[in-house]
Amino acid sequence: MREISSAKITEEVARLCMESNFELGEDVWRALEEGLKKEESPVGREILSQILENADIAKSERMPICQDTGLAVVFVELGQDVHITGGDLEAAIDGGVKKGYTEGYLRKSSLGDPLERVNTGDNTPAVIHIRIVPGDRLRLCVVPKGGGAENMSRIAMLKPADGVEGVKQFVVDSVRTASANPCPPIVVGVGIGGTFELCAFNAKKALLREIGSTHPDPFYAGLEKELLVKVNDTGIGPQGLGGRITALAVHIEVAACHIASLPVAVNLNCHAARHKEVIL
Amino acid sequence: MMAEYKLTVPLDTDVVSKLKAGDRVTLTGDVYTARDAAHKRLVDLLGEGKELPMPLQGQVIYYVGPSPTPPGKAIGSAGPTTSYRMDPYTPALIEKGLKGMIGKGERSEPVVDAMKEHGAVYFAATGGAAALISKRITKAEIIAYEDLGSEAIRKLTVEDFPVIVAQDSQGGNIYKEGQKKYAR
Ligand code: SF4
Q1: Domain interval for residue A96
Q2: Could you give the angle at the alpha carbon of A216 between the alpha carbons of A211 and A220, nearest 5°?
Q3: Measured between CB atoms, does A181 come within 8 Å of chain B?
């Protein structure tokens, strides 16, 4: 048994909340620079330049890339040989979110109840996804998720007969309907298969993959490429003002599913595609 | 083709009517912030025939809920929020003299109709360029609804705030025109 203290977890989550909001990932940065070279629309190029300049300012001044610093979604992979000491894991994570969002001057956007709509004041509770894995390490990944892109996400329980064409159509339709709202250029996370909730979870998980990486399965690698072309052919462009760079990437996560089902979920991320992780 | 303008707020009707979808504009002067909750209160006040906490004639509302202000800065990060959520309230404010709005994403038909009838313009700022935009805000002062936190109404003094005319007072719409142009 390897011991990790809950205080250490709080400390690390607080740091990840701040860093993910101040520093755009290098993969996103690279993809935006590539996009700027390819964008044909002058307005689109202007916007991409602003986004890159913004990332520079945010990093050097330790300011949030976007004022919507999101709900804190935290993916946890807990090695089964880890023993957490000094308090419970979820409370330690919430403690880190509270500390990070307060000390980092990040916006608190969490409402305790969706209908009463009163702000909790410290951006807790976090949305926590825990998986138990072999080994004695703890992996924490903080994903600040803004409302603009999240609100444009969708799920459909397609008929098996709809097949891959149905999936493609649903993905492209979702992007088209979202148009300017999720702050394009976007990252498109697609879950295919599983049950209703696993499919939605996988669409979010797909957003964490490095931009520019290829799917390990050649079929899905090809489908991702094809979907990226289709999505960019909508002409939505940066901020929806028209252009060739609507998305930086399409990422697919697949799961086994029931003989009667073909679920597909689309979770969108804006160009402020933030996530930072640590392995303890 | 697209023109570039340096404008000062308040805006008058002549200026508004020459702006075309796609034009690049920088704004200097005072703008007011308001999001969903503040809009609801403003429109409720109008309904009761009461006075608003800020002027509307010729003014510009910026849809933003900034992040908290760190020490030594005028404001935290302050990019636009999605505008369609304000659509149910907007026509009533345009009727009372509001000339400009800054946000992100397309506006609905009733808003466009009010913009055409009374002469108002909708500007897009770059969503997510929030640290950059904060550099163009030199002063921020809460003037109403402090209880709403980041959604309180603030008076922002802006200098060369970069925006694009997204929907103009004649029905021009760069979302529709631009997307059509680059679709394959
Ligand atoms: S969609 Fe993303 S970039 Fe746009 S305002 Fe929301 S968090 Fe910021």
Answers
A1: 2-20+65-145
A2: 85
A3: yes
